[in-house]
CMP deaminase (Cohnella candidum), 173 residues
Amino acid sequence: MPASVRKDWDTYFMDIAFMASTRSRCPRRHVGSVLVQGKKLLGTAYNGAPMGVPDCSEDGCMIVEEFEPAAGTESPGGIKVKQRCIRTIHAEQNLLLFTDRIDREGSVVYVTDQPCWTCANMLANSGIVEIVFHRVYPKDYDKVAALMKQRGIGFRQIDGYVPPPDTEVQDAI
């Protein structure tokens, strides 16, 4: 990008979310989030273990298995096993924990990955007016999009966005 061309605000704030994600020690996925009101940055967060507790890179992931119907199957044999780590607090949850409700009223959340269903529910009650993300989470996309529409919260993926170099982790999920 030539020095004379400024980044648009979406790119600027998403870049900051990706930079925040580099603080994550999760070997499976690095996620960062940013709270913005107008053009003012109010907070950043990333996914990780609670403060003072060993993280996944120190003590390993705490994997649980969930069983769910495989896509397009109705039969009992069509079960898919999904593994997920429960050691970490999601970036969106940390953002809500470390920002004030008054600051969230009317604000926008930029997050590297589309929020999961649990985070979407929390964000829906947080006072924000929009969620902007880069990577889609296909498992929850339809129901999260429907929830945001029902709540009147903007929900959009940035088209054509390219994260800053050295900020993306190859997902092990």
